[in-house]
């Protein structure tokens, strides 16, 4: 594979999954980690990605960007609008972070009274734009690159929470592999968020269906709502509808 093709693949994976690990890219592309590190350095220098220790992040994941810079923006807005139908007055909602979640938080109704509980600094900041919601931010060790709390203290706080609904994005979802992520600490927090909630809604663009990362979060059978940009009766959703309680 030529350098240009390799770097295009890397950008595609970062856009799709929000983050990548150098070890995974090395394995998938059949090149050394040194080669991957040079690619990531070049892509970071050109402003296309955010290089972090051990891999890279999408630049749009945790910062405000123009609509035309957000991967699959139209699809994510459609998912955000569908998610509004799950909201009911008085709910306690555990919410994660990510670009689809951010689009959802931008269009929240102003006639409901809700309590949002989050470990995402970006989500908490977005919620401060509203006066009709209570916001509970669960602290712990904050990742500078992801602005997401993780670690034992965060998980201990989540153990004392009982939310009506958990709304999460996902880096990968597969019928056999379930929900998965490449970040071990993030996986533990997401598990705790799901365990602390009566219902779970997963938001994802359909392009992520059938993908799998290193660490499993939950089986698909434990998802109450799977929300994509597709119609629930789309052929791509047929097998997922057999495992998940409701496709939206």
Summarize this structure as a short list of keywords or feature phrases.
single chain, 248 residues, alpha/beta, Arc Repressor Mutant, subunit A, Rossmann fold, 2 domains, seven-stranded parallel sheet, three-stranded antiparallel sheet, 9 helices, 15 strands, 35% helix, globular, transcription, DNA-binding transcription factor activity, DeoR-like_C
Topology (SSEs and partners):
Elements: H1 3-17, E1 19-21, H2 22-29, H3 33-45, E2 50-52, E3 55-57, H4 73-83, E4 92-95, H5 99-106, E5 114-118, H6 121-127, E6 133-137, E7 141-142, E8 149-150, H7 152-158, E9 163-169, E10 172-174, E11 178-181, H8 184-195, E12 197-203, E13 215-218, E14 225-227, H9 238-243, E15 246-247
Parallel strand pairs: 4-5, 4-9, 5-6, 9-12, 12-14, 14-15
Antiparallel strand pairs: 1-3, 2-3, 7-8, 10-11, 11-13
Mean pLDDT: 91
CATH architecture of the largest domain: 3-Layer(aba) Sandwich
Question: What is the count of β-strands?
Answer: 15
Number of helices: 9
Query: CATH topology of the largest domain, what is it called?
Result: Rossmann fold
Q: Going across the biggest sheet, name each strand in turn.
A: 6-5-4-9-12-14-15
The proportion of strand residues reads 15-25%
């Amino acid at each position: 594979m030529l350098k240009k093709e390799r770097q295009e693949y890397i950008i595609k994976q970062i856009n799709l999954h929000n983050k990548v690990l150098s070890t995974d890219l090395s394995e998938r592309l059949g090149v050394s980690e040194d080669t991957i590190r040079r690619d990531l350095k070049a892509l970071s220098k050109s402003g296309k990605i955010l290089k972090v220790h051990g891999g890279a992040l999408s630049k749009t994941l945790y910062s405000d960007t123009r609509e035309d810079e957000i991967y699959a923006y139209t699809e994510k807005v459609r998912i955000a609008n569908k998610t509004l139908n799950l909201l009911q007055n008085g709910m306690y909602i555990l919410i994660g972070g990510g670009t689809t979640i951010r689009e959802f938080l931008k269009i929240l109704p102003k006639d409901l009274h809700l309590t949002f509980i989050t470990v995402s600094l970006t989500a908490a900041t977005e919620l401060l734009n509203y006066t009709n919601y209570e916001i509970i931010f669960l602290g712990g060790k904050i990742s500078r690159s992801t602005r997401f709390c993780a670690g034992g203290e965060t998980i201990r706080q989540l153990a004392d929470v009982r939310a009506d609904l958990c709304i999460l994005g996902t880096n990968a979802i597969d019928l056999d592999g379930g929900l998965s992520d490449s970040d071990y600490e993030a996986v533990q927090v997401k598990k705790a968020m799901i365990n602390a909630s009566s219902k779970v809604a997963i938001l994802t663009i359909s392009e992520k269906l059938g993908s799998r990362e290193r660490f499993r979060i939950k089986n698909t059978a434990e998802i109450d709502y799977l929300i994509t940009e597709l119609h629930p009766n789309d052929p791509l959703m047929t097998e997922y509808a057999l495992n998940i309680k409701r496709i939206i």
